[in-house]
Amino acid sequence: MSSVSELDSIGLVLCSDRKGGLENAFVDMAYALVTLGYKVVALTPANAQFRSMMPELVEFYDYSPKGYWDFFSRFKTRRYIKNNNIKLLVTVNSRATYTIAKSVSGLNIPVLGVSYSYKHKRMQAADHLVVVTQHMKAHFLQHGWPVGDVDVLPCMLRNFPVESIALKPVDDVVKLGFVGRLSPEKGLEDLVEAMSLLIGKGRSLSLTIAGSGDDEQKIHALLAQKGLQQNVFFSGWITDIREWLKNINLIIVPSKEETFGIVVLESMAHGCPVVSTYAPGPSSQIENGVTGWLAETGDVESLASAIETALGQSGTWEQVVDNARASACKYSFENQIPIIKDIIEKIIVK
């Protein structure tokens, strides 16, 4: 039987080369493992944009299998893992989980699969599973996972803000904010439609969009159709969300699908009020009317109504923000570290 004290190193695996919420969560996990005293080897594509964000102590192995059945990559990676005394593999999402599990088949090296999506078939290759909400856990249990082999570990904030930003006064033009990839599941089109409804009823609104994606031209076309080009501004990807939030009255998260929603957590922690949908991730963080406001998923009129309700209750925002920050504390790096340690120790002594 192994123990944590005998653990030579942990392999942390992600096949993505992009830079976004998933990759930020991967970087946070690397910092957590290093903080716990483990030697960490990151198995990622050589051109991964997030490599520069990783802790200095992390070593790198270039890992980019060409699909699920890349036998050359499988053999090469298996040899590397054996030669470098990797005793646990932490894999993020289905591709990394499946390909690495096949690489180490028969080596008696446990694979801890961390899932940020509801894809379940190839995650079955893991020995133990971590998901980010209770809703996700129920989903995986329905698809055959034993209850003792699934743990919930929400996304974390590595640098929880010491203090809240000052609430921006609601003036003649209410400044809404959106942060995220411009893709259909993020619901930005619904937000534009909801804005149009509210402006039609006499509300003065602007929207600042932080992010980019394949739907950007579609969003521009919708803005032109609605005559809202002068109301909407594009920031591109941002690196300092705290500074960006200082110019926003209300963050809107109109997601149709969202496993967690790190922008919800970041906004709550920094003290910017949030309106979101009842998508599983955001609704696991927000108590409607207490720490933010929630709208029905994929319902433009419900979203417009939730925004209107939040604006009508602007006199209570200070209390809502205080409640939200207190709730967000449980997702801080310091509070998540012991949970990660317990999960790893449980797997190592299996």
Automatic annotation (TrEMBL):
UniProt superkingdom: Bacteria
- GO molecular function terms attached to this record: glycosyltransferase activity
Q: Please give a single GO biological process term from the UniProt record.
A: carbohydrate derivative metabolic process
Question: Is Transferase one of the keywords?
Answer: yes
Per UniProt, the keywords (alphabetical) are: Transferase
According to the entry, every stretch annotated as the Glycosyltransferase subfamily 4-like N-terminal domain falls at 20-155
Question: Which InterPro entries does this entry report, sorted A to Z?
Answer: Glyco_trans_1, Glyco_trans_4-like_N
Locate the transmembrane regions by residue number. Answer: none
DNA-binding among the record's keywords?
Answer: no
In this chain the Glycosyl transferase family domain maps to 173-325
Q: PANTHER family recorded for this chain?
A: GLYCOSYLTRANSFERASE (PTHR12526)
Please identify the protein, giving its name as recorded. Glycosyltransferase
